[in-house]
Amino acid sequence: MSRTIKRGPPPRRPVPRRRQPVKRVTLAQRLLARVPVSEETIKKAVTWTILGGAGAAALAIATYVGVPGMIGTAIAEQAGHAGFRVQQIEVTGLKRMDRMTVYAVALDQQSRAMPLVNLEDVRAKLLRYGWIKDAHVSRRLPDTLLVDIEERTPAAVWQDNGQLTLIDAGGVLLEPVRAEAMPDLPLIIGPGANLQEPAYQALLSAAPALKPRVKAATWIGNRRWDLTFDSGETLALPEEGAGAALMKFAAMDGSRPLLGRGWLRFDMRDPAKLVARKPGLNQNHALADPAKAGDMGSDPASGNDADGAASEGAAAQGAIQG
């Protein structure tokens, strides 16, 4: 008796495993891995940059095609709501100007949305302050205003009607000064003397040897200077040729010292002679030019010169002391 043997299906072969592809790391990914900022933060920064560019482009297009200002403002306000809004102000260059004043000027805006901040308006307002010679205002997206200040340099103190004010070399008023806190700067006195500061500095440069000894200068009659030296004497200079007269006085003082010798006042308004007066004496003396004569003589006729040297000298001294 035969037996039938049934054969089943052939056994299945195991499916070979697929090789997993090796994940390649790009150079950009390697660099990002080294940056101490999370990937999420970087993505947000890129998003803000794209939004900022898109917002600025939209505002520019709206302006170009003539979209009404209200619509352009609305677009700019939307950019502000998206994060492009003034939140910080960085100020550089300040030495004497009040920092909080600069902050207040920069924030004085109808809107703090970055596209609506008027940079030229901020600069114009800053230039109204005496200390600020120039200012540069710019944006740093998304939320910072940059203000770079160039300050003026104090050059002298101006006294007028008993008020002391610090001024720069151009005569621009900087700030009030207290008498007990006077800086070590030249003192100029009289109405309009601040506007003569550039000419006054040029005058002193004509006699550099005397410049350190000049402690005050009074602008007389809106036409000429009286100089006061550290030794107490006053020198009346002419209206015309003041620089030449000062150079001549410096030469005479160098040949035979005049300052610190007890004289009260020197008068050079007459270009032909130097007239001097001592305290308590009504009579003036004409001092000879050492280049022409070696001695000093009395000049009774000069006791009352045509321009009233004695009376004007007393007035000038009173102004300086006041």
What is the CATH homology-level superfamily of one domain? Cell division protein FtsQ/DivIB
CATH top level of one domain is: Alpha Beta
What fraction strand?
Answer: 15-25%
Which residues sit in consecutive blocks of at least 5 with pLDDT less than 50?
A: 62-72, 79-83, 293-322
Radius of gyration: 40 Å
What would CATH call the architecture of one domain? 3-Layer(aba) Sandwich
- Whole-number mean pLDDT: 76
Count of helical stretches: 8
Biggest sheet: strands, sense, closure? 11 strands, mixed
End-to-end C-alpha gap: 152 Å
Cross-sheet strand order for the largest sheet: 6-5-4-7-8-9-10-11-12-13-14
The share of residues in helices is 25-40%
CATH topology of one domain: Rossmann fold
Please count the beta strands (DSSP E, at least 2 residues each).
14
Mass-distribution shape: rod-shaped
N to C succession of SSEs: HHHEHHEEEEEEHEEEHEEEEH
Quickly give the structural class.
alpha/beta
Keywords: Cell cycle, Cell division, Cell inner membrane, Cell membrane, Membrane, Transmembrane, Transmembrane helix
Main location: membrane
InterPro entries: Cell_div_FtsQ/DivIB_C, FtsQ, FtsQ_C_sf, POTRA, POTRA_FtsQ_type
Function: Essential cell division protein.
